[in-house]
Amino acid sequence: MAQRQQLQALLKALCDNVYFQPPSNVTMQYPCIVYQRDTADSRFAGNKLYRYTKRYQVTFISRDPDDDVPDKIAALPLCSFDRSFVADNLHHDVFRLYF
User: Fold this and answer.
1) What is the pTM of this model?
2) How far apart are the first and last CA of the chain?
3) DSSP-derived pairing of the beta strands 32-45 and 18-20
4) What's the gap between Cα 97 and its chain centre?
5) Which residue from 1, 20, 37, 40 has the fewest beta carbons nearer than 10 Å?
């Protein structure tokens, strides 16, 4: 299984609705997790790449500000909380996840 599909399965275990870089014509069901490639971390030794780790922006969107899914996302290895905001009466919790 490819690495992104592994991440998809991991996020799907936390929330039923998971979307990877959804196009604007997709109608999302809430609560949901939306994630996309953000950047990557490259480490070098001896002028050669020895580690390359992709980073994803993971956003949990819900109508319920007290949903426990953000706590579960925050507990993932190499995950850090970035910010929280409300838009259109939907609560967004944004994380940065190396995977």
Assistant:
1) 0.92
2) 14
3) parallel
4) 6
5) 1
